[in-house]
Design brief:
By secondary structure, this protein is of the alpha/beta class. The chain is 43% helix and 21% strand. The chain has helices at residues 5-20, 22-37, 41-46, 54-68, 73-77, 98-111, 128-136, 149-161, 203-208, 223-235, 251-260, and strands spanning 79-82, 85-88, 118-122, 141-146, 166-170, 183-188, 193-194, 215-216, 236-245, 263-270, 276-283. It has a seven-stranded mixed sheet with strand order 5-4-3-6-9-11-10, sandwiched between helices. Helix 7 (128-136) links the parallel strand 3 and strand 4. The longest helix is centred in the N-terminal third of the chain and has 16 residues, at 5-20. The radius of gyration is 21 Å and the shape is elongated. The termini are far apart. The model has no long low-confidence stretch (mean pLDDT 94).
């Protein structure tokens, strides 16, 4: 069956609207055509009368089938958008999210015009945070650590494509220590969802995204935060900063933990949805 771009685009939106709603269905339809044909919104208008090849039509049908099965569009297309960049993503990495863009923006804004900051990104996944900071801070020295070899291969490819200077290290954060007083900033979006929250999560997250990057035991919701905070107590310079993406359910517990470990100016910061989504603190050694 032959179809023009305009006809298939309209049908695609109709197919996706029951799954995602009108707005998201339109966004996904545009992503699909951009991935398959390289056309932006203007291109969709210009090429609306064009006949689509049987190959493109079959690819669209395949994508729709996978979407209906619950697979995220980012994994289907192999890419996701983050902080103005297109990043490769695979099932070995979390899909970059808008909330994490806000974390990057917070760090970039608070760095102001400082240069040569030494930054550590813990649990880098696709490299989204590390690469964004490398490209948006002034001459930073960025190191990124992850336990997953597969995730680091994706992160390294993203850094190479985006011309970002990041040093990647494959290590378990519980078995690795940076040098004393070697860092100005530590940032992490670690696993923070407790196992008992799984029943409230969307199917496409549970079935497709890497669980080791998402979940922590119910009895240890601050497991990674404690470890990273301990590392910061030695590795951060006087006045160094630590930034986290957090679970709003444990925001107050996290603040108490950071204060107990000697961090000062601890802030809990709302995301665009007015949820306590970030924490920031400064290490003062009181010398």
């Amino acid at each position: 069956m032959q179809m023009t771009l305009e006809e298939r685009y309209r049908l695609l939106r109709q197919e996706l609207t029951p799954l995602f709603g009108v707005g998201e269905a339109t966004s996904i339809a545009r992503l699909i055509f951009h991935a398959l044909k390289g056309w932006d919104t203007t291109g969709l208008v210009v090429h609306a009368p064009d006949m689509l090849s049987p190959f493109i039509l079959s690819r669209i049908d395949e994508i729709v089938k996978r979407l209906k099965a619950g697979e995220p569009i980012q994994y289907i297309l192999g890419e996701g958008r983050f902080y103005g960049m297109t990043l490769k993503v695979t099932p070995a990495t979390l899909i970059p999210r808008q909330e994490t863009e806000e974390l990057v923006e917070l760090i970039v804004n608070e760095a102001e015009d400082r240069s040569d900051l030494r930054v550590l990104d813990v649990g880098t996944g696709s490299g989204a945070i590390a690469i964004a900071l490398s490209r948006n801070l002034r001459f930073p020295e960025v190191t990124a650590i992850d336990i997953s070899k597969d995730a680091l291969e994706v992160a390294e490819e993203n850094a190479r494509i985006l011309h970002a200077r990041v040093r990647f290290i494959q290590k378990d954060i519980f078995d690795w220590e940076p040098a004393s007083h070697s860092l100005d900033v530590i940032v992490s979006n670690p696993p923070y969802i407790c196992d008992n929250e799984k029943s409230d999560m969307e199917r496409n997250v549970l079935e497709y995204e890497p669980h080791e990057a998402l979940f922590v035991p119910d009895e240890a919701p601050l497991l990674f935060y404690r470890r990273i905070a301990d590392i910061g107590c030695d590795a951060l310079v006087e006045g160094g900063s630590i930034y986290f993406e957090i679970n709003p359910l444990y925001a107050d517990d996290l603040r108490g933990m950071l204060e107990q470990k000697g961090y000062e100016d601890v802030r809990l910061i709302d995301d665009i949805s007015h949820k306590k989504r970030f924490a920031a603190a400064i290490l003062r050694r009181n010398i």
